[in-house]
Amino acid sequence: MKRTLPALGVVFTAALALTGCGLGTTGTTDATSTAQIPELAADQQVSIVFESYSYGVAGAWTETFNALIADFSAAHPNIKVTAQKPQGNSPNPATDTVSSIQNQMVAGTPPDVAQLGFSDLDFTIHQLKAKPLDQLVGAEAVKRNFDGARHAYAPRARTLDDWDGHTYGVPFVFSTPVLYLNASLFTEAGLDPAKPPTTWDEVTTAAKAIAERTGKGGVYIDCLTKTAKDWCFQSLVRSNGGRVISEDRNSLTFADAPAVEVTEMAQNLVNTGSMPKLNQKQGYEAFGRGEIGMMLETSALQSVFVTGSKGKWDLRSAPMPGFGSKPAIPTNSGAGLHILSNDPAKQRAAWELIKHLTSEDSYKKIAQNIGYLPLRTGLLEEAGGLKEWADQNPLLRPNVAQLANMEPWVSMPGNNYLQMRDGMMDAVEAVVFQGADPRSTLTAARTAGTELMPKS
């Protein structure tokens, strides 16, 4: 099964009659049929479990999501939502989500609705058995939610959870790679922060100047470790004209020249002292303290940087740099919301929660408090929406602009997708931060990953 790539518009398939498969009703397959899970009665009490890795992050993340759930509970007093973070010990809670849900499935108590990363999409559909929403609640209901009460989803965001003609989730929170700048260090190094680097050659030059003239780190690219996953690495490779997996999903391509060149560029930054040897957490904490001049990062950490820089140094943002004359191609981070329950009442309650979490009012809170993109981008032009906030907060502008040429974070195929992805990123990390040979190291990882590919 192939994933449906985002287009400038979105085409929804006609609703199909539900056929067993835990969708709540049975019926014949008919392109004109509509979904049959019933609406909840006003006094019908339903309890659902919502698993979200955002609850594993302290501060603005958890506080914002608690507020969103509280708003939902006030509007739907008959639906009780128990929110929980993934079970696991990873420093990045998102890393624990799939294994957490698998363990709960084995125990017979999976969450009813879950926030799952786009890199898990293949596995989410085929192994976690996420429900096709266009069949579950009807294609028209899915379309109405995307169209919104006042503002529609950005076109390229609408289809990120589509696969083989069906919509399996509603994209919820994501970012594209943003180049955050410490303008104070730029000025100290004799650079003009009003002219941020637009290519990686320019980044290399600026990073070297910052490191030599200020004694601070020049740049940190948060795309090059296993903890960072591969969404941003995919963006770098795509921007250099390559891919990490072929478009037909039959072969791994992350040892091809474009990917090798990306790792060589980053390795050179480390070897020249322009990029410090730090893990992901150390990297973003150091930038937040004002110790690094530039950082390529998700806007999910924007609130951390705003807090760290306030009254201390000048935080700015710019679009992701490109490679020479090649256009930068941002990919998205983040996750969508998926229904896993087999119970019709819980499915309906889960859909009501998804609609609430992706509403205009919810995106106002998400954008203002966390820094994630408001996927209903019209809010940025709405007086009383996010216009006033956006006018006073230019940090989000590069992220919004990059939606126009964004491409999806592509999931690896099959049941061994995590080993394939992690093997690739282990190789990238070894090249960049441990000095391993780029071509041979990536080739060895590709060979190992190919053995894990699904056999046709």
From TrEMBL:
Keyword Glycoprotein (UniProt): no
Subcellular location: Cell envelope
Keywords, alphabetical: Signal, Transport
Principal subcellular localisation of the protein: other
InterPro entries, per the entry: Bact_solute-bd_prot1 (IPR050490), SBP (IPR006059)
Keyword Plastid assigned: no
Organism: Nocardia fluminea
Similarity-based family: Belongs to the bacterial solute-binding protein 1 family.
Protein name per Swiss-Prot or TrEMBL: Carbohydrate ABC transporter substrate-binding protein (CUT1 family)
Annotated TM spans: none
Record's GO cellular component terms: cell envelope
PANTHER family xref list: ARABINOSE-BINDING PROTEIN-RELATED (PTHR43649), SN-GLYCEROL-3-PHOSPHATE-BINDING PERIPLASMIC PROTEIN UGPB (PTHR43649:SF31)
Signal sequence bounds: 1-17
Pfam families (alphabetical): SBP_bac_8 (PF13416)
